[in-house]
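2024-03-11 09:14:02 INFO receiving multi-entity request
2024-03-11 09:14:02 INFO entity count = two
2024-03-11 09:14:03 INFO echoing inputs for audit
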Amino acid sequence: MITLKSDLYDIYLSLRFELTKHMRRKRLLIVGAIAILVPLLIGYLGYYASDFYTVEILASSSLGFITLLVIIAGAMFAGDAISGEIAKKTGLLLFPTPQKRFSIIAGKYIAALTATIFVVSIYYVILTIQIIHLFGAGELSIALAKSYLIAILFAGSIVSLFYFFSSLLKGTTAPSLIGFFFILMILPIFSGILMLCDIDPWFIVTTQAGLITQVFGVSGMMGEQVQLSFGSGIAVMIVYALAFFFTGAFIASRKNME
Amino acid sequence: MEYAIQTENLVKRYSRPLNVKQRGGAFTALDEVSLQIEKGTVVGYLGPNGAGKTTTIKILAKLITPTSGRAYINGIDVTDSSQEVLRSVGMLIEVPGTYDYLTPHEMLYYFGMVHRIGKKNIDRRIEETLQLVDLLDWEHKKIGTFSTGMQRRVALAKAVLHRPEILILDEPVLGLDPKGIRDVRELIRRFKSEGMTVFLSSHLLGEVSEVCDEVIFLDKGKVIESDGMDDIAKTTVFESVKVRFSRPLTSDELESIRSIKLASSVEMTDSTVRIQLAPEPESIYQVLRELVALNFEIISYNPEGKGLEDYYISIMGN
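2024-03-11 09:21:47 INFO inference complete, emitting structure
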C-alpha cells in the first residue's frame, strides 16, 4: 500500500515536472496559440465569405483541422518524451533516482496527454463560443459533445502512438517524423488499399477520426468515404491508446542507457 | 563486513560496438570485476578511456544490466532490487545533458521531491546545495545560459542535494576550470569528513592522489590492482624536488644545500633550485627538513619523479 502510494506520488511528480518543461519550452504556448487562432480564422473567415453558413458547415470546416492539431500536439508533447532523455543524456540525471522507471514514463505519458487534451479543449471552447456568437446558444447540440469525446479519445490514441515511437526509436526528431509519416501517410494509404479491396477499414484509428465531424452529419479530414459507428470508434481509439501506451512503456522500462 | 559498494564477478558483454569509434564485433566491457568499497572511504577508480569505469557505474545506477555477476549497494543487490536502493546514493555519471530551459531551482526542486526532502525544507536545501557548488546567484537563471563548467556544477548539485550516504562521481572535474577543480576536491574532502563514502572514477591521477584513501586500477574491463594511497606513497621514490625560494640564493647558500647528505646535485634558475635526490624513500622529507633547519625562506616545493603517475604506468604499461 505504501509502495503504491509512493509510486502514485512519483507519477504525480513526473507529470508536474513534464508540464513545467512543456511550459518552459514554450511548446504548450505554441500549440495553445494554434488552438486559439485556427478556429477563429476558419470560423469567421468562412462566416463572412459565405452566404449559406450553417453550424454543420462551421463544424466540418473547423473540426476538420482538429485531427491535425492532435497530431501536432502529440508530436510536440510525446514525440521525444523517452527518446529525448536518452539522446540528450538527461536520462543520466533522471533515471538513477529512487523511483520506478514506470512511474517516470507513466508521468511523462499523462503529461503529454494532459497537454494535448488541454489544447483540444481550448479548440472546442473557441468553437462553442463561435457557434453561440454566430448562430445563438440554441444551435449547440449533443453532436458537439460527442465530437469532443471522440477528439479526446483520438488524442489518447495519437499520444500513445508518438509515445510508442519515442520508446522504440533513437534520436530527438526521428520518432516525431516517423510518427507523422505513419499517421498521415501509412495509415491513410493502408486504409485506402483496404477500401479498394472492399474491406471496411474500421480498425484504422485515422479512419475512425472521421467521426469527429461525422457526428454532425458532415465529413472532415479523414475517413470521408466510410460510414462510421460511434461505438466502434470509441472502442478502436481506446484499444490504440492502451495498446501503444503499454507497449511503449514496456520498451521504455527495459531500455538500457549504454 | 557490509560494504558501501560491492561487486562480485561483474561481467558485461556487448554483441556489437557501442559507437563508431569502437571497431570489431563483440567485446567485453567488464570481465569478472570484483570490488569492495568500505563505508566512509574515498576510493579512486582509475583507468584509461574505455577501461570499463563508466560501465561499472551504470550498472550500480541500474542504467544497464550486467551479463552476469552481482552488484551491491549497502548490501542490497542492485541488479535484483527496486530503484529504492538508490535512495542513499548520489550520482554524477559521464557528462549528463541539462534541462536548458529550466532554472537550477526548478530542476533541483523536482529531484529533491523525488528524494522526499519535503516541501518545508526543499527551498532551504536547494539554496544550501547551490551555495556548496557556488551557484547560488544563478538559482533562478536558465541553465541553458550557463557555461559547461557551471552546468557540471548543477549536475553535481543534483548528486549531493539529498546528502547521500554514498556518492558516485564519474569524471567529476571534466570541463571545470582550476577553481572548479579545487572546489570539487574540497567538497570531496568535506563529504569524507562527514562520513560519506565517495567512489570517484577518473583518469586524472592528480585529483585521485589528492583525495583518495584507496585506488583501484582498471584496464580492458579487468581490475589490475588495488592499493591504499599510503602503500602507494611508500613505494614512491621522488627523483628530484624543485624548491622556490623568496630570492635567488648566493653561492655559499647553494654550497650549504649541496652539503645535505641525500642531495646528490643542485641546479639553480632564478630563485628556483632543482635538487637531485638520492634514491631513498626518505630523501624528499629529509632534504626539506634540512632546508627548513638551515632557515631558508621557502615559497613552494614540487616533488618530481615517481608519483602516482609512475605507479599507474608501472601497472598499466605505456
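2024-03-11 09:21:48 INFO post-check: Chain B has a mean pLDDT of 88.
2024-03-11 09:21:48 INFO post-check: Chain B has ten helices and 14 strands.
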